[in-house]
Write a structure and sequence with these properties.
mainly alpha; 72% helix; transmembrane; membrane; RCF1; HIG1 domain family member 1C
Length: 89
Amino acid sequence: MSSDNQWSADEDEGQLSRLIRKSRDSPFVPIGIAGFVTVVSYGLYKLKYRRDQKMSIHLIHMRVAAQGFVVGAVTIGNFLNLYLMFLCF
């Protein structure tokens, strides 16, 4: 077996350093994460006052809203990055 494919702990980056690196590459990722946490927190808070709505329906709505926020933030970030890239040329 070749030594090129061996895993080394020195080469592994931590989760925090990976998040910081991805934040520099795409600044809308942390915005998407913050929006996701906000939507889920609000949804869990509203879980108490859902009246006659079923729990599964409430959780599905909360999941769709959170995923929509993340996808929207990443999409806007990519289009902005693409726009800025074409401006430079």
